[in-house]
Design brief:
The protein starts with a strand and ends in a 7-residue tail after the last helix. About 50% of the residues are buried. It is built from eleven helices and 16 strands. The protein is α/β, with parallel strands linked by helices and about 350 residues long. The strands form five sheets. A seven-stranded parallel beta sheet has the order 3-2-1-4-5-9-14, with helices on both faces. It is globular, with a radius of gyration of 20 Å.
């Protein structure tokens, strides 16, 4: 197949492009080379340096394309409220322009990079009252050291449970709101254009080529950068926040499976899948795994960031059953190896 890949020079996009070519597909690479993600790095050879919001550039690039793999996005939680227009522009408007151009070109199959941030807080259960949807944690409670979510009925500490793809969407950051918007635009496009979409909700992606030392770096990269400076990795709250960390090679493989699935499916399909390892790990354990062998212990600071979620852990079952995807890299192996993997400047 001829596949147009946006965000092709990025951390995940580069891995996806390599996996697509290894699977025998022809890849048309698109990346605007956003400075926040790439610094002053020049576009890799064969990359079309195009802003997805530029409607005039899409005609020739989409010619002969069988499907689009849309990885391009401004990422990270959002540093300040002032970032909102940038997220809306790059992610919301960019996706809308791309979808309109695809329809004009007769391209009706899409794999969309989404994120677990669309869920906001994960799934919580009370031993007495069952599933609960806790409100955002209050500053006063966090300042007092109460980092947990509590049952609205009885006040008990809520335990986490696996989040399935049918969970409600409750974005709690600029980035999260933009990813929900991308999914909604794609879902509307399916109905209006008689098209098909698979959205992949990535959990915490790590691996070689991850960017370092930017506000948009992943936490694993931040821990590693601290270690390289001889500093203790700083862990917020009590370190008990639970996440799912998935290796970038597994994410790339999930994209190949999703592409082959969506191209082989009928029109009118919109399916979302969690892309995760299926092996929950606490943030403190992530810091310990990345630091293993260094002799440096993490620093549990007790600090917090408003808007951070306590737990969000995915169910891998739908992706396993319908896409045939299961992660091959276990966090206990991948995170220590990440400590010496090459990073992006």
């Amino acid at each position: 197949m001829r596949v147009l890949l946006t965000g092709s020079a990025g951390f995940i996009g580069a891995a996806v492009g390599g996996a697509l070519e290894a699977a025998g597909h022809e890849v048309v690479r698109i990346d605007v080379m956003l400075p926040a993600a790439h610094g002053a790095t020049e576009a890799p050879p064969g990359t079309h340096q195009v802003d997805v919001r530029d409607a005039d550039r899409w005609g020739d690039l989409l010619a002969g394309v069988d499907a689009v793999c849309h990885q391009a996005a401004m990422v990270g939680a959002g540093v300040t409220v002032a970032d909102l227009p940038a997220y809306a522009g790059h992610n919301d408007l960019g996706t809308a322009v791309l979808l309109a151009a695809m329809h004009e070109a007769g391209v009706d199959r899409l794999v969309l990079a989404s994120s677990m941030v669309v869920y906001g807080e994960g799934r919580y259960t009370c031993p007495t009252h069952g599933d609960q949807a806790p409100p955002p944690r209050r500053r006063e409670a966090l300042e007092a050291g109460d980092v947990e979510n509590h049952c609205p009925e009885c006040g008990a500490v809520l335990g986490w449970a696996l989040v399935g793809e049918d969970a409600r969407l409750a974005p709690r950051s600029s980035y999260a709101a933009s990813k929900v918007a991308q999914e909604h635009y794609a879902s509307a496009w399916v109905r209006q254009a008689d098209a098909a979409v698979v959205a992949l909700r990535y959990h915490n992606v790590y691996g070689p080529g991850m960017p370092r030392d930017t506000p948009y770096s992943g936490v694993a990269a931040m821990f590693r950068s601290s270690l390289e400076r001889g500093e203790r990795p700083r862990v917020f709250e009590d370190g008990g926040q639970v996440r799912d960390f998935v290796h970038v090679d597994d994410v790339a493989r999930a994209n190949v499976l999703a592409l082959e699935s969506v191209v082989g499916s009928g029109a009118g399909r919109y399916d979302a899948y969690n892309v995760c390892s299926g092996e929950p790990v606490s943030i403190l354990d992530v810091a310990r795994l990345v630091a293993s062998g260094t002799g440096i212990d993490p620093d549990v600071t007790g600090g917090f960031r408003l808007g951070d979620v306590r737990h969000v852990v995915a169910s891998p079952e739908r992706a396993r059953a319908e896409l045939g995807f299961a992660a091959a890299v276990h966090p206990e192996e991948g995170l220590p190896a990440f400590a010496t993997a090459p990073l992006r400047a």
